[in-house]
C-alpha cells in the first residue's frame, strides 16, 4: 500500500521546513520545538515558551500554526508565519522579550535581518513594533529567495482545511494564468517554472490553486446558517433561541414569536 499517512506527511513537511529555516536563517542555533496546529481565533500562529513537558521532565517550546487560515492565505504567508514565530523563539533563547505578545525593536531587527519586514498593516509604511504585528517579505531578500528554493523543491504544506477562515491577502499577483490543480499537478507546474513564476505562485492564494477548498464567502454563509436565532413574544417579551426560520408560538399569549434582529 503506497498511500501516504496524512499525519506523517503533514508534520514531516513542517519539520523539514523548520529545519531549513533554522539552518539558513538562524545558523542552526534554534532548538527543536514542538510544532502544533491550533485553531486559535484571529491569529495565524503563536510561540509559547516551555509549554510542553515529557515524562522525563524535559520542557519544550511550542510553535503553533492555525490551519483555519491556510486555504485563504498566500503560500508564502504560511512560511512567513513559521519564521515570524521562530524569531520569537530566537528572542526567548538569545534576546530580551518584552511583555507577553508585544513585538519590540529587538524582535523587529531580527526579522529585518533575515528578510521579513515587520508591519502592523502587513504592508510598507506600517509600524514595526507593537502588540499585534504582521509582516511582508523584502522583495529579493534572503527570506524570499529561500522560499523560492524550498517551494521549487516541493517543500510546502500539502494539507489544507477545506473550510478556511477569511484573511486579507496582502500582496496577490494576477490570477489569470492559474487553474485549480491537485497536488501532483501543482508540483509538475512548479518543476517547470523559472524563479519569477515560482515567486508568482508563492504570492498566489492557496484556495485559488488547490481543488475543493471552499471560498471564504461560502464558508461565511455556512457559518451564518449554523448560528442560532433569537425569537421573542411581542406581548410578554418571553424569548427563546433556536435554528433559523422556525415557526414558534408563545403558549401563554397564543401569539407567534418574531425574530429579533
Could you give a short description of this structure?
By secondary structure, the protein is α+β, with helices and mostly antiparallel strands.
Please tell me about this protein's structure.
The protein has seven helices and ten strands. A hairpin with a 5-residue loop joins strand 2 (45-53) and strand 3 (59-65). Helix 4 (142-152) crosses helix 6 (195-202). The chain folds into two domains: 6-220, no CATH class; 228-259, no CATH class. With 261 residues, it is an alpha+beta fold. It comes from Arcobacter defluvii. Residues 14-115 form the SprT-like domain. This is SprT-like domain-containing protein.
Write the SSE topology.
Elements: H1 6-25, E1 34-37, E2 45-53, E3 59-65, H2 75-94, H3 105-113, E4 116-119, E5 134-137, H4 142-152, H5 183-191, H6 195-202, H7 216-226, E6 229-232, E7 239-242, E8 249-250, E9 255-256, E10 258-259
Parallel strand pairs: 1-3
Antiparallel strand pairs: 2-3, 4-5, 6-7, 6-10, 8-9
Helix pairs in contact: 1-2, 1-4, 2-3, 4-6
Organism: Arcobacter defluvii
Domain SprT-like: 14-115
Protein name: SprT-like domain-containing protein
